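Section 4.2 – Deliverable D4.2 (structural model, holo form)

The reporting period included a commitment to supply a predicted holo structure for the target in complex with iron/sulfur cluster. Inputs used:
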Amino acid sequence: MKAVNHKLSRRSFLKAAGLAGTGSLLAPFYRPSNASETTAEMPLRPFGNTGIQVPILSFGGSLDTSLSMVVLRQAAKWGVTYWDTANTYMGGKSELGFGKYLQKYPQDRQKLFLVTKSHAWTLKGMSQDLDSSLARMQTDYIDLYFMHSVRRIGQLDDELKSWAEKKKAEGKIRLFGFSTHSNMEECMLGASRLGWIDGIMMTYNYRLMHTDDMRRAVDACARAGIGLTAMKTQGGGQVRTDSESELELAGKFLEKGYSDAQAKLKAVWDDPNIASICSEMPNMTILMANLAAAMDQTKLSADESALLQQYARETRSAYCAGCTDRCESAVAGNIPIGDVMRYLMYARSYGIPHRACRGFRKIPPDIQRQIAAADFSAAERRCPQQMPIGRLLREALVDFS
Ligand code: SF4
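Output (structure tokens):
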């Protein structure tokens, strides 16, 4: 019993110890006596062939940013000047928060690389969304405008190309691209052949970055000069895990003075084709931890990278890779398996169940009812991650509806 207690206590300590690692990594950067000053510089990388340099860490605004004025101010001062939002985030409160900031600090507009997205998927809807985003954010232009959550390369047609060119000519946007969570590799490969996509934001982390399909897609985009922004870099999944590798991982990184969360960021930055990591940073603690990781020059060792990959293999069935073409076509009806998996991730990995519920409740009631009765066995056979799809979707139905 004693041994068990000791093990639990060590496990609890390591899981809660992110700040301990953060503290030591922050030491060269953070000066508590005058937090607004620092001599360290945020590293920049080229955003594809656009000629624009962006900070390797960007502020993910999928929250009510009107409550984050202090964090935004400090982020801007510390060089986190790539800010990402979407027309739909928090029902518009995210864009309104950025607008509130720019109203207060209009001089910061020029140094910001401002990104927002439309989920409209129609040209008329996107035009309306773009105008409303400009008004909400109190700005004349968006640096990079995304069609949100693209699932198929066919969505990027010639009409959309003309729309993007027109909005650029009007001065409303400088660059155009898309975000993607589903069938990402196919969308990225297709985009690399189009010649008019400036940037892509995709799920990218230590779990996905080593697969052949993702490597091929990233290389093709890099050759095509498309700027790449990584999101969901912590690789949080749909099932809570508690493996021995996870414990070993946390302990090993703490010995080096940083947390496993910081190590996961470093794993992504190890890929020079990734221009920036978009991270939601709702408070100063996370902003400072991420900043410290960005400014620290220590790279992951081969052993540490191998440990991350081992952990990814061991917890594979807890993580949805977004290859929705494989599973969704194997189930009758139009059940959005990939979306539900994302909502589970918000609830179980990110600890934001309200976002999960909000997303899930947008699924039409008849489709929600199909989840309860559907046979997911064929989808599970096709799933490369060997996920218990049926069980997870029915858990989501109970948890969120
Ligand atoms: S549930 Fe499996 S097959 Fe479906 S998107 Fe996720 S990883 Fe791919």
